[in-house]
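Researcher: I'd like a candidate sequence for this fold, 151 residues long. If you have to choose between options at a position, lean toward the conservative one.
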């Protein structure tokens, strides 16, 4: 029987994570690749299936408030708002239920206001279209201000 080198699945997992980040895809758990042999397929055929497997994802960034604990940015697409269904749920009446979206795409970090009542700003400037942000940017959702930190 032919075996697959142990490094190949790990390499493919890394490529999947990188592709998800580059394209702004949201993975709900860590990427996992399992390569199995099948007598039902020709040697030149390949089959792929996806499954959702829960598991921890390491944070790629943090929103650090002026006081209190930071919010971990885990998913490639992070929904910020007052709703408990948001990835970053901020208990503040002046923050809209669905306030803003932060995501990674093309090797950059992006943010967009979701037509919130009190707006989103980056480094003091109100945003109305998606903008690219960098580590250390000061991001405000209405009156709530955070520093964006990436590892």
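Model: Candidate sequence:
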């Amino acid at each position: 029987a032919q075996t697959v080198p142990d490094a190949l699945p790990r390499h493919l997992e890394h490529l999947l994570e990188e592709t998800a980040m580059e394209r702004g895809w949201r993975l709900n758990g860590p990427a996992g690749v399992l390569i199995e042999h099948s007598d039902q397929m020709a040697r030149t055929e390949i089959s792929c299936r996806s499954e959702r497997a829960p598991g921890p994802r390491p944070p790629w960034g943090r929103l650090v408030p002026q006081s209190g604990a930071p919010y971990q940015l885990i998913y490639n697409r992070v929904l910020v708002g007052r709703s408990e269904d948001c990835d970053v749920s901020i208990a503040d009446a002046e923050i809209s239920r669905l306030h803003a979206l932060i995501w990674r795409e093309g090797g950059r970090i992006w943010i967009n206001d979701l037509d919130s009542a009190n707006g989103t700003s980056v480094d003091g400037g109100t945003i109305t279209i998606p903008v690219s942000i960098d580590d250390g940017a000061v991001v405000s959702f209405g009156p709530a201000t955070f520093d964006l930190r990436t590892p």
